Amino acid sequence: MDQRPLASPPVADYGDEGSPFYRKVLLTAVLGNVVEWYDNALYGILAVFLARTFFPESDPTAALLATYVGLIAAYAIRPVGGVLMGRLSDVRGHRFTLMLTIGLMTGGTLLIGLLPGYSAVGLAAPALLMLCRLIQGVGASGEYTVAANFILEHGPRRKRQYLAGWSVGSTSVGPLIASLVAVALTSALSPEAFESWGWRILFLLSAPMGLVTLFIRRHAPDLPRIQKVLDHTAEISPPSRPFVEAVRGHWREMAQVIALGAGQRIGTFCISTYFVTALIGAGFGETRAIFASILAYLIGPPAAILGGLIADRVGGRIVLIVGFAAFTLLTVPTFLVIGTSLGVTLAAVLGFTFVNNFVGAPLTHAYVMTFSPEVRGTASALNYNIGTTLIGSTAPLVAAALFARTGSNLSFAWYMTAACVLSLAVAVFAYPQKAKA
User: Fold this and answer.
1) Architecture of domain 20-224
2) Is 160 within 8 Å of 103 (Cβ atoms)?
3) What DSSP character marks residue 290?
4) What is the DSSP letter of 24?
5) CATH number of 242-437
6) What 8-state DSSP symbol labels residue 198?
7) Which of 27, 145, 12, 137 is nearest to 78 (CA)?
8) Separation CA 47–CA 92 (nearest Å)
9) Could you read off the pLDDT of 231-266 as tens digits, one per residue?
10) Higher per-residue pLDDT: 13 or 84
11) Would you say the pTM of this structure is higher than 0.70?
12) N or C: which end of the chain has fewer CB within 10 A?
């Protein structure tokens, strides 16, 4: 009996015009990014309340530090989760994987809003909180790159970086929603009510957003162009060890892409965590610091989309060179002016945010399109999550350590400048060849 695999039905190739469904695909990917970054922002915004609820009250500082371990744990598991989700994407397709990622992220966030506190179940409370964060981390590990794969493979080739800009821009919408809802609830509720149960509402709101996204993804079409390539590859020589194949066959490109995004990874964490703390420390107060954060999230989407539009016209490499050159020149001055006056500080932070998002689209294009289709899911998820975990998520710790050693925030500014010089050098001298296509 012939044991050869059955050929899949022919799949249309829509050429440069892309799939006719790509706008629906864009919507489902953007919504997933909003949910991911909403969930992630909540944990940081509400860390003080989580510490008081899930840890012993005898040592508030230790409780807060233990809560931040959950933030780190969710990023630490991402490289492992990224390999698993990337492999699923390569084997089962993007739509299946994106349904799984949104389910894990939404489930983990919803459970945090329902968990009993330390006063009710003792040490089980922090253990369950960490478990929820790990579930979120596994889901988020594949969300961004798999969603980007989905967009870029369906969309027109001539608009790929523009579409990547929408993907990057949507990551600012989740934290923006989280910040606005948090401000609204803290204004509407008494401090006692918000600390007792009000903070849980923000986590529970993840459920309707996740369910809507899941419904849309369930009815989104699977990729039309790439599937026939994957089917053909699987019939000839299916990769039995995708992680080994991705690393062995593409380690050079992975290293290039990780280095290419180093400066932007640190910049992203400056915007999401560092600047608010620095503004409060400079004496502007919590209200003005949160206002600056909201403005930064508002400027993110148009900056990312503009960067993608220009990259499609002149090439992603040019946008990255200009962007990282600007970062190299402006990072130290940005840190120097924080605290001088509210207007100057806001201008510096918003300019920093604009540049960080401006380079996001060609970076996302490089993260994904550098790699061949048979390992694209695994390789892109792995390099993105390694860069985010090792370079991005460690930025707050590096900032704190450098400040403790030198007594100046400028030490961290020079650290980021060095990372931007590395990214600039890769863009000039070692831009991944396949990313140009």
Assistant:
1) Up-down Bundle (1.20)
2) no
3) H
4) H
5) 1.20.1250.20
6) I
7) 137
8) 36
9) 554 554 545 555 666 667 778 888 899 999 999 999
10) 84
11) yes
12) N
